Please model this.
Amino acid sequence: MEMIYQSTRNAGEQVTASEAILKGLASDGGLFVPNEIPVFSIPFTRMAEMDYREVAFEVMRLFLTDFTSEELKHCIDKAYDQKFDVPEIVPLREVDDVHYLELFHGATIAFKDMALSILPHLLTAAAKKNNVKEEIVILTATSGDTGKAALAGFADVPGTRIIVFYPKDGVSPIQEKQMVTQRGANTTVVGIHGNFDDAQNGVKAIFNNKELAAAMREKGFRFSSANSINVGRLVPQIVYYVYAYTRLLAAGKLKEGERLNVVVPTGNFGNILAAYYAKCAGLPIGKLICASNDNKVLYDFFQSGTYDKNRDFILTTSPSMDILISSNLERLIYRVAGDDAKKNAQLMQALLKDGVYSVTDEMRERLADFYGGFATVKQTADTIRELYEKTGYVIDTHTAVATSVYHKYKEETGDNSVTVIASTASPYKFTRSVMTAIDSKYDAMGDFELVDVLEKISNTKVPHAIEEIRNAQIVHKLVCDKDRMQQTVEEILGI
Model:
């Protein structure tokens, strides 16, 4: 059965999986969602005998039905290869009675690698399949991790260009250096004077500009996206939750059919949405624990049923979660609205116009599987220090937000179910915040001095992603105001 994808705002806009990947965003500004979520057909006990690539194929073939088996396997083999520094791709580490799903062993040491390693291959396969002649311009906003992962994935990929916007003062020093040192003739990185939401809104406005799209076509370009709004990113994220469950089965930590709780640090909601889709497809997940930092718009939403972005934006030590507009939440809202595109469109219009919307009591009931929690900057630091002192295991700030929220959840509910925490970034990506959390004395050291100390205290090797930027030359120096993003894109492309 061929899977059809439709816009969350217009049921009439329907495309194939490959078309959804090419487009990135629906023409009405909505997000593409499957018209029905498929159900896993192979027993999880059988998948427990498979490696990561084999599990990826079994999951992705259900969602990306217009790709042939050969095309999918080619994309998977190209994505999940030696660029990951461990053979299992995604190790599970049991620490302090919880399982950390280490999603940071790829080229840029963050969870975005899991999807952005494969997206360029899916996109180029989709372009061939749909006879696309134009050069594809990947336009992306990043809160720190997506940018580098997308740049690394698309660098020098034939038939593509990539332009990444990031908040100039809203990412960690390591994150920024990873981006601005990126080589590749087709890559451009632009810092904006503004925050991530400004970058994201600017990119969406460019996507929705029909006059610009026409001018692009005349010059032989078309836009696509590497942001988490792209189905080609969302589907690969479903894989690692299935993989985690099957590893726990194989290790005897779970019995077949036993429920697993999942804790995800989230800002844009894509990563936890993937876990939700896995649950809808039949993976035995109990609670979906959504962890926020001080920008706790998602926590407030799950508490009250009202999403309100009208609040102060707070810069925290977990910058990839410093987000007030969680784009991927729209896919969940659409689903709990009973797949009602008209109702969802009304809510998204209210968000655009007033910065706030409320869901009905009936919709809230359908959110019962979610638990929202948040951790402050201090709680995040305390969690890093306490876990290190107790176990010697060092986690990054985003994973610490999730760990802190998990402890609160467990204390509040007494739920002792087997739990996986999505560990979304290497501590090496946020060395200053991590090391000063362990001991304030480290704040006097330089960023790369801290890297070397972290290597010693954690007993882990400095990742290649860090070593390669230690002395790398800055390549990208473009900076613009948030209201000049479109003009900047036009200048880059010569339109």
Notes: DSSP finds 22 helices and 16 strands in the chain. The two ends are 42 Å apart (CA to CA). Residues 92-109+233-462 form a domain with the Rossmann fold fold (CATH 3.40.50.1100). The first helix runs from residue 17 to 23.
